[in-house]
Amino acid sequence: MAKLKIYGKSDPSVGIKEYYSIYDLFGSSTTVQLAGPNFQNIPDDQIKWSVWILLGGSWIKTEENNKTGATVEYTFSPKSLKRKGIRMLVDINGEKAVLDIKTKQAVESKIMFVELLDINKKKPTQLFSYGQTIVARVHCVNMEKFPIYVTLWEDDGGKGKENATDIKIDEKKGNILDGIVDVEFYLDPARAWLANIKPDANASNEGAFHEYYVTAEFYKKVSKPSKSVDVINPDYKDDPYAQKPAPKQQEPETKKETQTPAEKKGPSQKEQKGIAKSDRKAYDYAEKKVAVNTTVSFDPTQNFVDSMMKVGSKDSIWNRKDKLVIFPLLVKPENDIENKWGRIRNWASKAGTNMTTFNSNRDSGTRKHAARDLYTNALETVVAIADGKVLEVRLFYCETYQVTIRHTLKDGRDFIIRYGELDPKSITVKVGESVTQKQKLGKTGKLLKYLKKQKIYVPLMEIDDVTVFMLHFEHFSNGSKFDLKRFPTTNESKPYNRRNDLIDSLAILQEGYNNSFGSNSAEYIHESREFTEHDARLALMKIYDIYGKEMAKTIESIYRWEADHFKSDQYKICGSAGMETSGKSSGPNYGWDGSLYIKYPEYKPIGIWESFENKGKSGLGGNDQDKINKKKYIKFPSVEAAMMYIADFIDRHDGNVGRWHSLTPKVQEEYVKSIKTAIPRIVNKF
């Protein structure tokens, strides 16, 4: 009886598709050698393949690599180069064969492909809709830490069309890590009008979907695009992916030795349409189409700040001189990042992360917040963000009033804004009146709660004994439903108790903020919620994966000892274990070595936080407490950034953990003993 065996390369290059079989398809014989009579005529679904990796001394099965069939294909990623062990297994009704794999670096640098994922970085189970976030994941080989430029385009014409009107929506840059880079694009419902400006009669899906495509580009003096992506139109019934891509064009055989990966593939969609920059030629490219449904589907976990479709798009359509939308306040709100409540109640934070944001909990989680709340000092003026018509003026919540206006803009946008929680006595408009941009509507109000026993009203919102006045700002995307008797904005629909065209108002507020105050909020607004132990857990997983278990345990112990088990204010605000600025140094390095930020620009500090230090470990092996001068602590964008800095520091100093604390050998020795008393409970469970 013949023994089952795996045929195929045991030393594949990363990024190269390789075939593995139970048959000797790769031998020198002209006759295919079968696995044996007992393995012939076996149904494909009974021939099961899997890939296992050696992790922490145990072999772990990678479920995503399960396949069936007599012959299968695998392409190994750059991450496989760091694996301590890789094992391929084939199982036929209990009979098994194993092949140990040791991957090697690719000779050629290239972008393999671009895949489009949902906000959770999973393969989407349905087509995208406006209000969701697309994650473009670019897979590369032999390009570690190099920058990749990723662009989202609105597709207004078919391939080969001269003077195509494709519009650049957003461009972002990321650095390759372990062979991939992820870039997020938010499909803003307020900008769906853009896809309908110049419909193309020859486009197969025009009217059914709004078609976009993503390009990922690497410049070795060159660039690479990704495949297009359509956004669903719910009224269209045909298959959105019926149209087949044009065949790749090949260069003459004589040029193969000097061709770049991009030249081997032929002209990209950008090049065929004449919208690629003539002074920048892609070294490689890949294109990915996406069809977007014209309905709105809110994803409560999406990152609205990072996905603003203005960042890095100097030649974008959004860089207009005319200001179609302005901010609803004449001053920046007090919960702006620069002002007194910006850290604890930042209005521009991710949805659901603090009580002023869209989708945050109300009534113990039985209801969700339908707006963005802009905190102000007493009775700040509220103005119309654009021209419009007043639809409703009435009592709203806790003795405040609301003004609801339909805004129809010159660019085709048509939507409804509810200006809520206004002071009742300040209202200056009536139902049916037309308003102009920047016209006063009223003033911010204070919420009053009635205490039945005392028969008095008391302020509902106070912070540090200061009464909060505010504007509650709601956005409904469908202005055509302006008859509020037929289509009331408030109803019993969960979770917001609002009609179904309610969307997060963040995007339009940021557009108005930029137009009113001359700055792009996305440049300086960072997540305001305090860091928690959960952030540390995620970061320690990253450390574990890159540096190993011992380094991860060391980093956790340092944090537990220096940051009071992730409970110190310094940790909650800065994300670090007590990194102070050096002298009068400035950002982003603040006197520290900045080499890590060259590798990972996303880890650059975002500012400083000043505070008197707590006693901490003063007298217990730590530095003496300074009770006179405030300390300046470096603020990081994430706990991962701060932990990666410490891990990199220790690695650069040959594993000397004590060097993180002191230059003195004796003090270093005592420090190491001290942190070992802090049990790394998180990493111990990995």
TrEMBL record:
Residues 368-447 form the M23ase beta-sheet core domain. InterPro entries: Cell_wall_metabolism_enzyme, Dup_hybrid_motif, M23ase_b-sheet_dom. SUPFAM superfamilies: Duplicated hybrid motif. Transmembrane segments: none annotated. Residues 230-279 are annotated as: Disordered. Residues 250-279 have a biased composition (Basic and acidic residues). Gene3D superfamilies: Glucose Permease (Domain IIA) (2.70.70.10). PANTHER family: MUREIN HYDROLASE ACTIVATOR ENVC, PEPTIDASE-RELATED. This is M23ase beta-sheet core domain-containing protein.
